[in-house]
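I wish you would study the pair of lines that follows with an eye to the fold:

===
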Amino acid sequence: MRGKFITFEGIEGSGKSTQIQLLSDFLTRADIPHLKTREPGGTPIAEAIRKILLDPACKEMLPEAELLLYCASRAQHTGELILPALESGKIVISDRYYDSSYAYQGAARALDPSVIDILTDFATYHTIPDLTVLLDLPVEAGMKRITNRTLDRLEQEDLSFHAKVREQFLFIAKKHASRYLVIDAQQAPDIIHKEILSALNF
């Protein structure tokens, strides 16, 4: 029996890592087989691409190259790690997936969504998440949460960039409401965790 594929999306500082860890801890206690992963990354090749994508030294990276690198990472990640895990019956939890490309490279970088459609379908082997959790909060609040860490190339973008990302995530969530769970990320982490468990019927 195929496992469930759960993805987490949101702007920088939305609390994805915290909620993914809480969900993973819950599944571990319940003895439910699962895999926790992230994008870009998840496999050695995809992690190597991640270093290039998020390196602040790569300021000259063009939007087109950025999109293609994300898709290359995603193809390796999906084919090598995600699909085999799902086929073995595991729940797969991913910190970001292809919706991030529509938000970051599509809306914020102004790349053609129809191009992203084609590349996404190819890079994911037609894989669609069963549930996507969008942790939504104002951009200013998200940026404030990450001021105490070294910012990567995308985190260093200005507020207008991140505002476009947030707006696009909300648009995608409305467009694909049947697979989306939108949560107010300004709530306490334990309350958010309970909402996620409720949506998963745990």
